[in-house]
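Data availability (excerpt). All sequences and predicted token strings are deposited with the supplementary files. A representative entry, SDR family oxidoreductase, is shown inline so that the format can be inspected without opening the archive.
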Amino acid sequence: MLLENKVAIVYGAGGAMGGAVARAFAAEGATVHLAGRTLANLEKVAADIGAAVGSITVLDAYDVQAVNDHVASIEGPIDVVFNGVSIRVKQDIALVDMDVEDFVRPVEDAARTNFITSTAVARRMIAQRSGVIILLSSSAARESGFEMGGFSLACASIECLTRSMAGEVGKYGVRVVALRPNFTPDTHPEWDIPEDGLDHLLERTALGRLPQKAEVARTAAFAASDHAGPMTGAVLNLSCGSIVD
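Structure token line:
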């Protein structure tokens, strides 16, 4: 197993992507500490991964003290952290018609939650001289999309943080990577998407399809593993070819 005897924290573990990553980490042998805002959602994920649960914590990842206290409560080494915390986004409005507050909000949210969770755990990882920090971006960071509001800039900021932090903590044996998936339809089963509703996205991919959340989660597990040991400061392109690096 890729993550046998590893200890991981997943922030936003009650969400679709955070939950998928938590399940993937557990399937690969990790003990997973689940943190998020909604207890019921965390408990559903915990039921799926069973004995692999290290703890379940209800917290607001936008709160620096709450995250610092959570990290301090975990004994022993922390090998992996994944941030799947959602950000507030308003879309389907042209930029020229958008209020500045609505545009800036997702950028501030992305910067705040990723900075708080990453630095809180990085301090522990620096002391132990090992660890992997995984952030979640999206193909919006590189697309010339339309009516995305501040989401594109928010994702680009996450990728910038990945590079900046990797450069600072690498000398301590700590790696930082980001995942850049395209839209993953199965993260929103509640959406009533028409049969041809995603054609405009499919047409822009080399593979003619969109990624699945399980694929993104398994990639996160690989990136967290020793098999990816030389990888840091990297953004893993999971866009099915909508972005070609």
